[in-house]
Amino acid sequence: MSDLFDVLKRGEEPSLPAHRICLVGASGLIGTAVLDESVGRSDMRVVSVARREFALPRGARTEVLVGLPDDWSALIGAARADVLVCALGTTIRAAGSQAAFRAVDHDLVVEVAQAARMAGIEHMIAVSSVGADRASRNFYLRTKGETEEDLGKLGFRRLDILRPGLLRGPRAEKRKLEGLGQAIAPVADLLVMHGKLRKYRSVRGSTVARTVFALVREKAQGRFVHDYDSMQRALRRAGE
């Protein structure tokens, strides 16, 4: 307490403790972007939970807790975080089947969220997908919608759902069609994605990561769904 009084006497701004983020899915495009964007920030401290060790960006203020998914509940508790950021996700092609895809994008995401609630975490930020809808005839979008609905039942004080369009940025896994989409997306965004189509605009992984940091600081309670425009508004509110 005396240190705080000394700071106030000198007219300095007291430094606030950093927000502690438990990041699951750190090796993917969004997870990597979150770690990259955390470099040089004193207001955010990221603790990653992962299956294996992975390369970290130079200067990242992060710890990596490694274990199999069966161990993640204990690791999430050990992270002592204020916010859970879940960037888990795969593709049906990479997973090998619809069942294997659902095991990651629904089952594992919900299990991670349940572990966070058991650890006392009251704020979750989950990366979903534009078009997510439990009533969709598209299996991918239906699974994403069901995941969002099940996360909403877990009693988080605040739940932020991010629904980005095509994600732009480096991926460890090379996807030919997605690579082509990334190349033409900026032009399509300018020429086509207007009005009701704006939510389908592509977005860089770094922009999603900065949106995560903006939302970490928001205090309102409830469930919030963020499309392209909502993410831009969150960034403006935070001055990111």
Question: What would you say about this model in short?
Answer:
The chain is an alpha/beta fold and 240 residues long. Helix content is 42%, strand content 17%.
Provide structural commentary.
With 240 residues, the protein is α/β, with parallel strands linked by helices. The protein has a single domain (16-172, 203-238), classed as Rossmann fold, CATH 3.40.50. It is 42% helix and 17% strand. The protein has helices at residues 2-9, 29-38, 72-78, 92-95, 98-118, 139-151, 176-191, 205-216, 228-238; strands spanning 19-24, 44-50, 62-66, 83-86, 123-127, 158-162, 167-168, 203-204, 222-226. The strands form 2 sheets. Strands 3-2-1-4-5-6-9 form a 7-stranded parallel sheet, with helices on both faces. Strands 7-8 form a two-stranded parallel sheet. β5 (123-127), α6 and β6 (158-162) form a beta-alpha-beta unit. It starts with a helix and ends with a helix. Mean pLDDT is 87; it is low at 1-9 and 187-191.
